[in-house]
Write a structure and sequence with these properties.
- There is one protein chain.
- By secondary structure, the protein is of the alpha+beta class.
- It folds into two domains: about 35 residues, no CATH class; about 240 residues, no CATH class.
- Helix content is about 20%, strand content about 25%.
- The chain contains three helices and 19 strands.
- The strands form six sheets. The protein has a six-stranded antiparallel sheet with strand order 14-15-13-12-19-18, with no helix packed on it. A four-stranded antiparallel sheet has the order 8-11-16-17, with helices on one face.
- The longest helix has about 50 residues.
- The relative contact order is 0.12.
Length: about 325
């Protein structure tokens, strides 16, 4: 076997170190199959690595850059979620209007009820799937009405919520036939992160007393034009003496989802003292989406009767307060 011939070419250079100039020889190996490499003779570390000081400097620079960039990235993330939320609510409003166009200018029946026949009563406006039909002619799931117009369940879920409901798409696709595989119940309800107000009645108190959601795009009189909003409330049985919302609350914590309830943000407080600073959104019958704040809301309570009064009392099992835009009250 013929050996490889490798040669070496050297060059004398002058190097100054420690104030003394002296000769030094640098050689380059060459030949067939050889790898060209420069070798400084007399250099004890020809392939020099980073020193500890250099690594620490790099780490420090990266840390400073991350500290500068993270707030900007969080702001971009919040803005993206806000834009997605506005698009979602606009699509929900458009879907309700398309449904009405196919059904004598009437919106779907509200599924935010419990009970059956003459014994039914109102429930949280966040309901996506009720426990049972309140009559044979009325569906218990929103998707039984709107699935053809909204195939992607993420459209009916607030993107700023801390978590998406585990079975959101599965339950939306199943509609009235939804059965949560994690429970032994034959049928299971699902509560979401938006509030849906078409054909819904709630208790306001005061001179107006009742909130009446729109029955169709052309609804007028005492009917509101509000179709859907972010959930923002206080004193719900899941969050007694605390605010809750699908939008992130300052200083808030995550309220984990349950088998029938989506995850929310929650923060301690008292509405009689101060309201949290959070930006909220709502969509109306004409399809437009508005931004509003907690100082621009009216308090709506869930009614215990089909007629709208009285509301559920405070205390154990309370539905709490659902805050809606003040301009949605007529």
């Amino acid at each position: 076997m013929e050996g490889k011939k490798i040669g070496k070419r050297c060059q004398s250079i002058s190097v100054r170190a420690g104030g003394v100039t002296g000769p030094q020889t640098r050689c380059v190996a060459f030949g067939k199959g050889s790898r060209v490499r420069s070798i400084a003779l007399g250099d004890p570390n020809p392939e020099r690595a980073f020193t500890l000081v250099e690594l620490l400097v790099v780490i420090s620079i990266v840390s400073v850059l991350m500290a500068i960039l993270m707030p900007a990235l969080n702001t971009v993330r919040r803005q993206a979620a806000a834009l997605t939320g506005m698009r979602n609510q606009r699509e929900v409003a458009n879907a309700a209007n398309l449904f009405a166009g196919d059904n004598d200018d009437l919106y779907p029946q509200s599924v935010a009820t419990i009970g059956f026949d003459s014994e039914w009563r109102w429930y949280d406006p966040t309901v996506l799937i009720g426990k049972k039909k309140r009559s044979p002619q009325i569906h218990r799931s929103m998707s039984a009405y709107l699935h053809d117009y909204i195939p992607d369940a993420r459209t009916v879920s607030c993107p700023s919520a801390p978590q998406q409901y585990k079975y959101l798409q599965e339950s939306w696709d199943a509609g009235d036939g939804w059965d949560n595989p994690d429970t032994d119940m034959p049928t299971d309800p699902v509560d979401g992160t938006y509030c849906f107000f078409w054909n819904y009645i709630g208790y306001l108190g005061g001179p107006r007393q009742l909130f009446k959601g729109p029955s169709g795009p052309a609804a007028g009189g005492r009917q509101s034009q509000l179709l859907v909003s972010d959930y923002f409330g206080y004193g719900h049985w899941r969050t007694p003496d605390s605010f809750a919302s699908c939008e992130k609350l300052p200083g808030g914590n995550i309220l984990e989802e349950q088998w029938l309830e989506s995850a929310w943000w929650t923060a301690a407080g008292d509405p009689n003292t101060a309201m949290p600073q959070v930006k909220l959104r709502a969509a109306y019958t004409d399809g437009h989406v508005e931004t509003y704040y907690p100082n621009e809301v009216s308090a709506l309570r869930v009614s215990m009767t089909p007629e709208g009064a009285p509301p559920y009392p405070d205390g154990a099992g309370s539905r709490g307060i659902f805050y809606i835009p003040r301009n949605a009250v007529r």
